[in-house]
Amino acid sequence: MSLRPIFGHRLLLNRLGGTLASGRFPQATLITGPVGAGKQRIALWVAQGLLCEEGPGAPCGRCAACQQVDGLSHPDLHWFVPIPRPSAGDPAKQADEAAETLAQVMEERRKTGLWQRADRMSSHALASVRLLHRRAWVTPFSGDRKVFVIGDAERLVVQESSQEAANALLKVLEEPPADTTIILTAADPQGLLPTIRSRLAMLRVGRVSDDEVRAFLRAESGRQWTDRALEQRVLLAEGCVGRALSAEDEGDDALEQAADALLGAIRNRGAAWVPHALRQQTWAARGEFTGLLDALSVRLRGELSEAAVGGADDLQPRIEALRRVEETRLAAQGNANPQLALAVLASDLERLL
Known about the structure:
It is a single chain. The protein is an alpha/beta fold. The chain has three domains: 10-204, Rossmann fold, CATH 3.40.50.300; 209-247; 249-352. Helix content is 52%, strand content 7%. It has a five-stranded parallel sheet with strand order 2-3-4-1-5, sandwiched between helices. The model has no long low-confidence stretch (mean pLDDT 87).
């Protein structure tokens, strides 16, 4: 299975193609943007353009090198993603174990051409940095250049135990081998050490249109959509294809039912929503609670759209209610207590709706 095509980002890709063709693409770059916006996919597109036999430039898509990148099998493309911390005790064996784990991850990604965000326990630990440093100084295998893509780079654990990892990474970024390009991606660039950020050229990836998300889901998700389910997923994506894919299909109906029940309780007044708040588990801020908030956001967005089309005169409170849900979801990413957060949110929504 090949990598799925990029939907949207045409202006950005055109600009990047020109930069590649001119030989001005930086050796060390940080691609930032919202979660699921396509940062790693665009980094792979850049890698394909750098390794293309007709390049550098926009990848031709026809040559052997482009085909190998599409199949995640090019020997000079090194894609590092967060992985579980290796269990070996010896540093060299840790790096070998990291290499084996990354190979397994790539094999899984070859099967579908798609991927999900790594789980919370995965990271770029010291072993991964050692492996990167080891490979950075090896001569390219098939061409005159090698490319490293470090996805979710804010998960670099460079402070653990010593400064060895930080020093190794900084050395590669500060003085990369002439035949090496390194591309980091991060939704939260502030999660990287300032000394690392200062050595990187910044590139911002934005959101795409709802039409482009819709077209991707229809063509590449591998499932049949009802009109209602498709529109809900497009609303949930908020211009980020990866976010549309990461929404778990299993449990969607249960979350929608929970969101409907919560809205019903809020509209019944009299703090009828209290049992719903108490039902939240305090440790689940990044799991079921955020799923509930996503379903609630989709429901409120749908109601807002219908109200706007119908010429309703109460749009401002609906907009404010949606804003409060999105603020609460953001707070949940910082491990807010779901019971307290939902109680405050429900109280606000009771006043607004």
